[in-house]
Amino acid sequence: MSKALKATAIQRLVANCAKNSKKSNNSVQVGLGIGEPASAVFRPPEALNRPVSGDSLTKARQIKEKLIEQGSGLKQDWLDADHWRALAAQRQYRLPHWYLPLSAGGIEKVLRDFGLGCKFFREVFGKHETYKKFVARNPQMPLWAFAGQCLEFQRHQIGTDLAI
Hints:
This protein has 164 residues and is mainly α. It is built from 8 helices and no strands.
């Protein structure tokens, strides 16, 4: 259960306990919780209780296979790949999957993951460069290589020259 759901459940529990303590006929049912009123027991929405259907798993597999097929044409032999992996491991960052192509949304996500923004992108890749232009100029570049380049540029920008 996520933190948000747990917090909501606790808030409901406190609110329901407060309501029930004001009532004179506060009936406690045994077996629902540790002496909690029946109305205070958290019941998740039905959507969370629904089992995963075979159709959704099949669709997910088909989408992944399609992405892998499309990503097979991307350049994978980068000379700095081992260096980028070491930098990612040092920062405990998981590089994007090898088959994901470079996209404007992917660039935004990588920059957000590193706490960087458009200013950093323009300083490194060009003053008048946009995400879409960069993607159009690099059709064979995978997203993980872009993330590796960002790690390297950020390391040089900060000035921490770590021996890797």
